[in-house]
Structures are given as structure tokens and as C-alpha cells.
């Protein structure tokens, strides 16, 4: 395990400090009801292997030649001699035999961290994870053997969901991909590779999860237990959305009212004739107003939903 | 998640087994038996060879006996002008195709971590150690055994491929089947020389830079290579 290098108070302090940023709701720092941070140790497979083998092939040899070119003129009446051009011509090749030896290691996320908003490490990972000490091929210093005393005293240890055989499959994929890079320029290539010395260790990495309630909503932030960086978090943003909602609703009604008034005037003028009988139009007008009111209500509901998400500040 | 804890004790005499953190091969200093860590401790035959006067340490090697069948061996000339190219195809000419009947063979290669494990195996195939004489009553301290039996079987096939590659012609491709039928460990006397370790009286050499656990092994044996270097 990699022990946490920060305390719960440090994690809290990091989250608190984040709340003072200008993009965060100004009242969040004062009014948020912050819960005690919880420490979780999340599992990673640390996999090692060696790839041994050979890559055989032919390294092509070329010579450069200058050749003359001709092309037909635009009128298609005659051939024109063009300037000479240099080309490479294959003149055979040299047999090449390369020994391959690669020591490889990879860290693979052993539990699903996506719900926390943390991308997984796997054989396909191309990018580093910002803020974390553990990376695709780098295991930080300071790993301790996990003993029961540590396990019972501190934090919750998350069980791995990625099996060892799945992790080995990823290790093999990663190792073979690296080894295939040897002798890439060879033609008629034949290679032979074996993977040996496969070793697996389960490494637990510390993450602090801090929750706080602000204006009835619960927010979470994940703080790295090694670097004290906020890996992922949702914070209440500034509430500009209320103004946006009010303005949009106002514009909607401003646009629709003249139209409704027009209908009202028109309905009070010429009478509608239904099946040869004259009838009043007040009922239709009421229905239209109710419909527009309902649409406005739905519109505000939708905007509110969007505003809840859209106004949050996400790390 | 259940943990399986294996006591590092000789299953034969109960003596405590010692090794490096990365070791999976252990030697009993009391009764001389060797054990490989797999599901548990599996016994494996070990051959302790005669010590030589200039030796500094013993290193562990695998000796794998196997049935080797080369069903197709394609070689090419080292320099060729015969690659004919067209717009879509490159055809290689001058290839020589042969096959060989099945035969018994053996391969010796390090049981410790090395980046030159295959080339050392090929060297020891071409110049086999001449001191493969079992010596009883010697239980030398042996450390650094990291290659499992399964890996040793796979490496034996890789060494067999390396032997074909090391031949005078240039190998183009190989269809080979190596079926191990016996394995044993050999403790081979080695001496520390400049920049590395000489194996079996100069039959092979391994540089410090390709000797992955050398520092740990030397520290465990209380050896200081800088003090023992001879030209």
C-alpha cells in the first residue's frame, strides 16, 4: 500500500481552499455543511514482465537516381521534357537479426473509478492522470507491505473487481505492443517473442472523499492522498442562472402575449360558427393561456435542471 | 480476498530458506535441496558443480532437456539483391528451406534475471560448461533465482530459436517445437572480472549492466566486486 501522506484535516483544508476560488459560489465557504472526509484505498495491479525474443527481416537498401520525365503540353499536341527528378530505387537488402529484451511494468486500475470521475489506467492508457502519483508505468516510492494493523486502523480498502487473469492479459498486450516496436523498419519480418517473469502486486492508493451540503444539494470532492490535489469534484458555481431563467421566461412571455391578445381581439370580433351555430371563443382563449402557462412551467423546469448542472464548477 | 501464506522452510529438513525479495528459487543450506515457488514450494533437482580455484560465487542456471523438432527452417543470404518489388508486392528470392528430424537436446541458461538471458543461453549451448560434475556435501549460498519452471520451458524454446539464429546463414523464419521432458538447476561457479561475471571458466560472460539483481546478490554474499576485480 501507499500510505496517505495527508490527514483528513489536510484534505478538508484543500477542499475549503478550493471554495474560495472566484468561480465558486461566494456563500459556499461560509454556509456549506462539510462532512468528515473519508479515506478510501483503491486498488491497482502493478504488473511486471520481461519480453525476450528475436526480430528477423531484411533492411532494405536503396540508391538515389536522377531520372528524366516528360509530360504532354496543355494543348496535348506534343511531349515536353520536364526537369529531372530524384527517386529512390530498391537495390536489395541486408539480412538483420535482432535480439529483443524489454523489461516492462504497468499499473492497471483494479476497481472501477469512473463513478468518481477518475479515468482508468489500462494497457490502452495514453495519457497521464493529472494530480495522481501513480501513473500508467510509474509506481511511486514509499510502498509499504500491507499488514492487518494498518488495514484495521485506517481507511476503507476497496476490493478489486478486475481479476488477476484480466490484468495479466493486459500486461501481455502492453508488453507485446512494446516489443513489436523493435525492428519496425524491417521488411519480410518474422519475430519470435515470449513473455516471462510475470509478477503481479496489488497496490492500494489513498483517496480522500469529502462531501458537503450546500443549499440542500450534496457535493463531493476526491482528494489525492499522496499529492493533496483535488482529482475530481463538483462545487456550487455562481448563481447567474436565476437571472438567465428570469430573462428567458420574460422574453418568452413578451413574445407570446401580443399574440394571445391578438387572438382575444380577433375572437371577440367575428364569431365562430360551429355546425351552423354561433359560439363564443373565451374557452379557446383560456385553453391557449393554460397551454402557454404549462409550457412556461415546463420550460422553467428544464432550465432549472440544466442550471443545476451547468452552474456547478467541476474540477 | 484470501491470502495464501507460504512458510519459507525446507519441506525436507525444516531449515529456513533464505533469498532475495524477488527470488522464487530457494536453496536449502542444510540439506542442499532446491525449491521453486509455484502454488507452493515445489522440489526441483539441483546439480552442484565442482568449485574452481578462481571462483567467487555460484550462480543458478536452468538445464532443460527437450525434444526439438524443426519442421521448417527458412534462411536467406546475408546480402541480397533479390528482393523484387512491384507496386503491391515484395517477393524475396534466394530463400533456402530445410527441415530436420526430431532430436533430444538440452539448453542451459540463467535462472536469474538478465537482459541477455537468450544470448547467454546460446553461448552456453555453443560452449557448454565442462564442469558439470555433481559434487556432494557442498551447499553453497545461492541467490538470485527468479525464473520459474514454466518460464524456463518457454525460455528453452527461445534459446533453441536463438541457436538457429546464431548459425552462419541468416534465418528468415522458423517453425520449431520444443517439448521439455526434464529440468534441473545447476549451480555454476563464476568469477568476478572487470565489468562483469565470467561464467564457468570463461565459457560465457555477463556484464554488470545486463545482470539485473547483481547488486542484491553481491550484497547478500558479502562480495564487493570492486575489491575482487582482476584483469
Question: If you had to describe this structure to a student in words, what would you say it looks like?
Answer:
The complex is a heterodimer of chains A (315) and B (231). Chain A is built from six helices and ten strands. The longest helix of chain A is centred in the last third of the chain and has 29 residues, at 282-310. Helices cover 30% and strands 38% of the residues of chain A. Chain A has helices spanning 8-19, 28-31, 148-153, 164-179, 241-268, 282-310; strands at residues 33-34, 38-72, 79-109, 156-157, 187-214, 217-224, 230-235, 272-274, 277-279, 313-314. In chain A, a hairpin with a 2-residue loop joins strand 8 (272-274) and strand 9 (277-279). Chain A is of the alpha+beta class. With 231 residues, chain B is α+β, with helices and mostly antiparallel strands. In chain B, strands 4, 5, 9, 10, 11, 12 and 13 form a seven-stranded mixed sheet that branches. Chain B has a three-stranded antiparallel sheet with strand order 1-2-3, with no helix packed on it. In chain B, strand 7 (84-85) and strand 8 (90-91) form a beta hairpin. Chain B is globular, with a radius of gyration of 21 Å. The A-B interface holds A 50, 52-54, 56, 58, 60, 90-95, 97, 99, 101, 103, 159-160, 187-188, 190, 192, 194, 196-197, 199 and B 1, 22, 76-83, 85, 90, 92, 113, 115-119, 146-148, 151, 154-155, 157-158, 161-162, 165, 170-174, 212. Strand 3 of chain A pairs antiparallel with strand 6 of chain B, so a sheet runs across the interface.
